[in-house]
């Protein structure tokens, strides 16, 4: 009689094992077939170019000339040359300024402020503000760049007309400030939406509890809101820092000028590799940029993981 | 500590929903007061309006001698326990309890001492360094209470303080809260949708429906003499029997049975009038044999309540429920007779209680 109940239980363990390692029940071969197209795309468009850049960075490959036909491996010369050149460090410093100014300060502060002010609002004002901010984000770079060139133009620019100061050359006199403001305007939407969603996760009772204790607006932010959205803030910083670090759009406003004052790393690579034709040097700088990105990413991820 | 007085308090939400409709209410100093009602009746809105988290559309809120209607929540000297306790997850128990003191700029050492003192009193001494995430529901509730007690609040407001606890703990917490309130003597208003909780804890209670206070009184008054059929059906673990009846001389005809006129309505009913006859299942005595003035019918359902049983009788077209002590319960299909206690039965005309000296205070009607 005991047999009547025991058989169904006996095969259970092996059953469960296959279940956990092969939930779809496809088997290794068929599963690989399904995954292959995606892996192939990743290999062709992500892995190969990255490896190719690493290879180029140790050659003297050029766009034209003898080295274009017959590039020689020159070891780490390109890296050494980049690291001892004043232009590289100048570009790096400009990039740090650009990232801190337009992403870490500009987009984060503006994005959070808009999200905070709009958090309890509904209706046309909220839709209008969000619509405008998101519009700046989704328009193609070439289009917004042209708009800003028109806005900041020295002679017929909209801004000078509005301010009544014709002849003021924003892009020549304040080039870094111009691209920082431009990129803040351009990219705030992402931070605004992310913080908007994050603020929705802050329990209203926590804010109300602080209000009943008499906490001011700033104290509510410090004691309730920021601790709650810390993870969102770090994720946001990570993403927009990296995006801004690699951003090329400012080139369309200033072309890196005047006099190299807005020659951020992305622009520097472009000029070195494609204008100057030194593909090997450009590849080496690209590899260094990749390294800097990794360091920044690891820094933020460390902070994120420290979240108790 | 101070009394709370509401005068013509009205709250209309954008869109025209009248959450509170000209409420008048006085809660004396030191009272444990319950706001009871079904969801959407306005009880939480009322509590939040007292706290200042909602602004009144008209009317006023007076704390002690002070009109606080237009004063910020933080300046009202009120403390509130939220339904989810609203403990800050990134602060330990000490910091959570001391938070209101920190906002009031009490020195760090002093507020730490105060937090420990209150925490010890609530049995949290071993937990002062933990984060809320490391505490059980009951412990979290005590931290929330400690935070409220650490402030020198004039009154406490509890929003559904027990609803996040499991059933077993809820009973313990009920007793604990009642004792604590008695010891502290601070005016306390709490919101609940659970009538048993309100009856068990409150000194006095208000039953709300659709933005109105339907009845204010002690739990005994509200339980024994509900002012209208809404309160009658809302209060009580087993709902009151509300049966259509016709006055026939000096007795009532209910579903073909003849029952005595409720004592409270004696002399107030006219012959031939249609009324609603109300009697709680607890106020029925059940017997297997016929009795004078009893409602007789077939037993359809028997529900076990532990020490007693809830028996449902089919009397004519109506269902009548009676509570029967253990050991004497019938089985479905039996004939049964439920005799109402005339001194506990009630008569309702157009939904309102018919009685000379009505129990409790009527409000809002």
From TrEMBL, chain A:
TM regions (residue ranges): 33-55, 98-117, 129-151, 163-185, 273-301
Protein name in UniProt: Multiple sugar transport system permease protein
UniProt-listed InterPro entries: MetI-like, MetI-like_sf
Gene3D superfamilies: MetI-like (1.10.3720.10)
Residues in coiled coil: none
Main location: membrane
Species this chain originates from: Nonomuraea endophytica
GO CC annotations on file: plasma membrane
Membership in a protein family: Belongs to the binding-protein-dependent transport system permease family.
UniProtKB/TrEMBL annotation, chain B:
Domain ABC transporter, chain residue ranges per copy: 4-235
InterPro entries: AAA+_ATPase, ABC_transporter-like_ATP-bd, ABC_transporter-like_CS, ABC_transpr_MalK/UgpC-like, Mo/tungstate-bd_C_term_dom, NA-bd_OB-fold, OB_MalK-like, P-loop_NTPase
Single GO cellular component term: ATP-binding cassette (ABC) transporter complex, substrate-binding subunit-containing
Source organism, top-level taxon: Bacteria
PROSITE patterns: ABC_TRANSPORTER_1 (PS00211), ABC_TRANSPORTER_2 (PS50893)
Gene3D superfamilies from the UniProt entry: 2.40.50.100, Nucleic acid-binding proteins, P-loop containing nucleotide triphosphate hydrolases
Keyword match Nucleotide-binding: yes
Pfam families found in the cross-reference section: ABC_tran, OB_MalK
Protein known as: Multiple sugar transport system ATP-binding protein
Origin species: Nonomuraea endophytica
């Amino acid at each position: 009689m005991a047999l009547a109940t025991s058989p169904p239980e006996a095969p259970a363990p092996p059953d469960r094992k296959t279940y956990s390692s092969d939930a779809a029940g496809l088997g290794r071969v068929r599963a690989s077939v399904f995954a292959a197209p995606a892996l192939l795309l990743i290999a062709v468009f992500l892995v190969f170019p990255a490896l190719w850049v690493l290879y180029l960075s140790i050659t003297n490959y050029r766009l034209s000339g003898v080295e274009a036909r017959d590039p020689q491996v020159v070891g780490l010369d390109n890296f050494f040359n980049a690291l001892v050149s004043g232009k590289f460090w100048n570009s790096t410093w400009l990039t740090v300024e650009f990232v801190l100014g337009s992403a870490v300060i500009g987009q984060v502060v503006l994005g959070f402020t808009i999200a905070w002010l709009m958090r309890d609002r509904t209706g046309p004002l909220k839709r209008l503000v969000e619509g405008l901010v998101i519009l700046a984000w989704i328009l193609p770079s070439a289009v917004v760049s042209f708009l800003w060139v028109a806005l900041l133009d020295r002679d017929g620019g909209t801004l000078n007309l509005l301010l009544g100061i014709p002849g003021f050359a924003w892009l020549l006199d304040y080039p870094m400030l111009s691209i920082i403001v431009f990129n803040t305007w351009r990219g705030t939407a992402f931070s605004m939406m992310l913080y908007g969603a994050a603020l929705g996760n802050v329990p209203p009772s926590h804010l109300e509890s602080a209000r009943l204790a008499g906490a001011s607006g700033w104290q509510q932010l410090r004691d309730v809101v920021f601790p709650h959205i810390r993870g969102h803030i770090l994720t946001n910083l990570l993403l927009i820092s990296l995006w801004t670090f690699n951003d090329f759009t400012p080139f369309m406003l200033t072309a890196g000028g005047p006099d190299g004052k807005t020659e951020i790393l992305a622009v520097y690579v472009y000029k070195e590799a494609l204008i100057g034709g030194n593909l090997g040097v450009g590849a080496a700088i690209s590899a260094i940029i990749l390294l800097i990105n990794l360091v920044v990413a690891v820094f933020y991820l460390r902070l994120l993981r420290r979240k108790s | 500590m101070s009394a709370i007085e509401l005068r013509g308090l009205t709250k209309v939400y954008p869109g025209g929903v009248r959450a509170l409709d000209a409420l008048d209410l006085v809660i004396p100093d030191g009272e444990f007061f319950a706001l009871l009602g079904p969801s959407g009746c306005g009880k939480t809105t009322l509590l939040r309006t007292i706290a200042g988290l909602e602004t009144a559309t008209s009317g006023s809120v007076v704390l002690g001698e002070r009109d606080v209607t237009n004063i910020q929540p933080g300046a009202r000297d009120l403390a509130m326990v939220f339904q989810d306790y609203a403990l800050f997850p990134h602060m330990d128990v000490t910091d959570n309890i001391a938070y209101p003191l920190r906002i009031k700029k009490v020195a760090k050492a002093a507020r730490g001492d105060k937090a420990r003192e209150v925490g010890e009193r609530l049995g949290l001494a071993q937990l002062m360094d933990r984060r809320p995430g490391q505490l059980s529901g009951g412990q979290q509730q005590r931290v929330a209470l400690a935070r409220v007690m650490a402030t020198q609040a004039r009154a406490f407001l509890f929003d559904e303080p027990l609803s996040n606890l499991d059933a077993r703990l809820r009973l313990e917490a009920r007793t604990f809260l009642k004792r604590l309130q008695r010891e502290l003597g601070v005016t306390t208003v709490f919101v609940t949708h659970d009538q048993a909780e309100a009856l068990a804890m409150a000194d006095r209670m208000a039953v709300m429906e659709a933005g109105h206070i339907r009845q204010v009184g002690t739990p005994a008054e509200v339980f024994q003499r509900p002012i209208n059929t809404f309160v009658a059906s809302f209060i009580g673990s087993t709902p009151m029997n509300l049966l259509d009846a016709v006055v026939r001389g000096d007795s009532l005809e209910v579903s073909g049975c003849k029952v005595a006129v409720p004592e409270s309505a004696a002399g107030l009913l006219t012959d031939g009038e249609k009324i609603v006859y109300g009697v709680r299942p607890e106020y029925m005595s059940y017997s297997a044999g016929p009795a004078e003035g009893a409602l007789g019918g077939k037993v359809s359902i028997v529900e076990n309540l532990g020490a007693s049983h809830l028996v449902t009788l089919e009397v004519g077209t109506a269902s009548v429920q009676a509570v029967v002590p253990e050991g004497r319960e019938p089985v479905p299909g039996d004939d049964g007779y439920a005799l109402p206690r005339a001194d506990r039965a009630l008569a309702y005309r157009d939904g309102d209680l018919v009685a000379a000296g009505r129990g409790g205070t009527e409000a809002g009607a």
